[in-house]
Structures are given as C-alpha cells and as structure tokens.
C-alpha cells in the first residue's frame, strides 16, 4: 500500500502507524458492513490522516471513493461514472462558504445511490468532520441516509462502505440514541507510531519521552508545540483561550475539577451531569470509554489507566495538555 504524504507543521511527513485501523478497513472490504461506521476520538488524534490513507487503500482495492471534509474544505471523487464525478466535482468547486459545503455533503448520498443504480458495485463513502457543518440536529438524519444506501440500495451491489468521523462527543451521543450506526472510538497514536512521526520533524527537539508525556500521542498537540518552538506555556495559554476556560467556569466547578485533574474517573463517579456536558462540549474529555478489547476500538485502545497521561478506565482527558490547561486556570483562580 502506498503511504500518503501529509502536512504537519508545514512539513511533509509520511503516514505512519494505525496498522490495526487499516486492518479494520481490509476487514470491512472482505466481510462488508451492515451499518455506517461512525468513528469519534480526541481532536487532532489523527482521524483525518487515517481516513485519507484509508481512501488510498480503498482505491488500490478497486473501490470508487468519495471523500468529503467540509471543515478543511477537502474533497476527492474517484468515480467510474464520469458524469457523476463531474457533477460532484462541480459542486465542490463552486463552494464559497460553509453553507455551500452542506449542499456538497448532502449531495453525496444522492450521487452514490445513482452510481449504484448505474452498476457501480464497490463504493466507499468517507465523510470527515461534517456534523458540525450540517448541524447536530441533522447528524443522526445524515447517518440514517447512509444506512438507507446500505439497506435499501436502488440495485444490488458488491460492497459499499460508509464511514463518518467526528471529533465531537456531542455528535456521538446524538447518533448513539438510534440504532443506525456502529459507533467506535479511535484514540491518540501508539507510542511507537508517534515516535515515527516525531522523528520526521526536523531541527532540535525536546527529548521524545518529554514530548510523549505532554501530548499523549496526539499529532495536533505535537504540531502546536513544534510551531511554537516547543513553548509549552504558549500552547497551554492558546488552548485556554480557544476552549474559553474562564475563571468563572473554573470557580463554578472548582472542587470537582481539582479532583478530576488528579483522577479523570472522578468525573464518572461524582461529577454533576451539567459539568460533564460542558467538558464534552468543549472537547476536553472523552467520556464513557469502552472496554479495552480491540473489538470495540478502531485502532489500538489506550491503557485502562495511565495517571501520567490523564487516562482513566471510563474517562480520559483528550491529551495531557488539556488537563494542564485546567490545572493552570485552577492555580490562577486560587491566586486571584
């Protein structure tokens, strides 16, 4: 399989790791899927890189592939029917706003149905981070539309694989209310794979073990650190501002957050639902982690507990830097 090139901190790097996740794609190709596959995980954990590499793998295996990422305005259509490819490509070229990307995303369902009607038997649909563009209230409806392709196609097909990925745990909760998809998490990169990524970045770098302890294997946090010239405080301050971790927010939940930075599972047993909802909406934690059996995860699962990285059995901080941002505001509130 050809390894794709990706941009990381304005550097071209080769896709690495995610061997289990790529084997899962091969399994779906071999056995088929009965439901759309909804994949969720921490922001910046490498979902998009895996999806793009998966698109390349599926092309090599003879699939027509449609890939849409409205957030990053990325689009690819490899369809054996030129008229349909041109139609989708034309729509994507015309978009000038997020609202227009909604139209492109929804059009994928109709175009795939038409491709099946015209005899295309092996199609992969990859929808990357689209739910916040089409709206949370439409996320489940969109997944149901993908399910309709699998369950009620206009003509028989050989294989159709539908994958939708999201960084938003809120979207996952909404979709999970229905029996319309298989929902599986993906975690940050394995330590070995993350080391391969770290090694591809040029220049002087902190010791790998230190970078691993800060990022927990999250490529986005590695990129943030690299771009800041390894200034951890700058990365933390930026995260505090981006997530709107105000003093009022921290003071409101002071005692609970103090416990959670030491043990994220405190949130599972003792925290009010309102706080859980806020932490999920801010994409600070992953809540209700499944068993660490490989079956429940797209790629290698995290350890059952790792206090150094902020991982508990049921709850985990998305990265150690997310936890450090909360700790930083807690300390600032105590001094003020």
Report on this model:
This protein has 336 residues and is an alpha/beta fold. It has 2 domains: 5-185, 3-Layer(aba) Sandwich (Rossmann fold), CATH 3.40.50; 231-335, no CATH class. 51% of the residues lie in helices and 14% in strands. The chain has 16 helices and 10 strands. It has helices at residues 19-31, 47-60, 82-94, 98-117, 131-134, 136-151, 169-176, 191-200, 208-215, 219-227, 232-242, 247-252, 254-262, 266-269, 273-281, 320-335; strands spanning 5-8, 11-14, 37-40, 64-69, 74-78, 122-128, 159-166, 182-185, 285-287, 315-317. β1 (5-8) and β2 form a beta hairpin. α1 packs across α2 and α3 (82-94) packs antiparallel against α4. The longest helix has 20 residues, at 98-117. The termini are far apart.
Outline of the structure:
The protein is of the alpha/beta class and 336 residues long.
Straight-line N-to-C gap: 56 Å
For the largest beta-sheet, the strand count, sense and barrel status come to:
6 strands, mixed
Give me the oligomer status.
Answer: single chain
Strand proportion: 5-15%
If strands are numbered along the chain, what order do they take across the biggest sheet?
A: 5-4-6-7-3-8
How many domains? 2
Average predicted local confidence, pLDDT: 94
| CATH 4th-level superfamily of the largest domain | P-loop containing nucleotide triphosphate hydrolases
Determine the CATH topology of the largest domain.
Answer: Rossmann fold
How much helicity do the residues have? 40-55%
Question: What's the overall geometry?
Answer: globular
């Amino acid at each position: 399989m050809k390894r794709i090139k990706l941009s990381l901190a304005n550097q071209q790097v080769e896709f690495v790791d995610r061997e289990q996740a790529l084997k899962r794609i091969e399994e779906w190709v071999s056995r088929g899927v009965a439901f759309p596959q909804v994949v969720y995980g921490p922001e910046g954990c490498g979902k998009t890189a895996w999806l793009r590499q998966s698109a390349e793998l599926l092309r090599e295996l003879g699939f027509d592939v449609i890939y849409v990422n409205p957030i990053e305005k990325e689009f690819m259509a490899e369809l054996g029917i030129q008229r349909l490819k041109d139609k989708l490509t034309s729509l994507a070229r015309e978009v000038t706003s997020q609202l227009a990307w909604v139209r492109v995303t929804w059009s994928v369902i109709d175009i795939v149905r038409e491709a099946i009607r015209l005899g295309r038997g092996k199609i992969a649909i990859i929808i990357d981070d689209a739910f916040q563009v089409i709206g949370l209230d439409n996320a489940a409806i969109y997944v149901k539309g993908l399910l309709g392709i699998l369950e009620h196609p206009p003509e028989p097909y050989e294989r159709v694989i539908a994958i939708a990925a999201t960084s938003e745990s809120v979207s996952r909760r909404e979709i999970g209310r229905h029996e319309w998809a298989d929902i599986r998490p993906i975690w940050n990169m394995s330590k070995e794979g993350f080391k391969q990524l770290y090694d591809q970045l040029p220049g002087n770098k902190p010791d790998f073990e230190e970078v691993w302890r800060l990022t927990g294997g999250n490529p986005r946090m590695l990129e943030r650190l690299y771009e800041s010239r390894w200034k951890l405080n700058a990365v933390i301050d930026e995260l505090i501002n981006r997530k709107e971790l105000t003093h009022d927010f921290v003071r409101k939940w002071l005692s609970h957050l103090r416990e959670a930075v030491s043990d994220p599972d405190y949130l599972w047993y003792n925290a009010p639902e309102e706080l859980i909802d806020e932490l999920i909406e801010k994409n600070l934690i992953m809540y209700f982690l499944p068993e660490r059996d490989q079956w429940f995860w797209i790629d290698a699962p995290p350890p059952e507990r790792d206090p150094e990285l902020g991982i508990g059995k049921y709850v985990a901080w998305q990265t150690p830097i997310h936890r450090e941002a909360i700790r930083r505001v807690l300390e600032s509130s105590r001094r003020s």
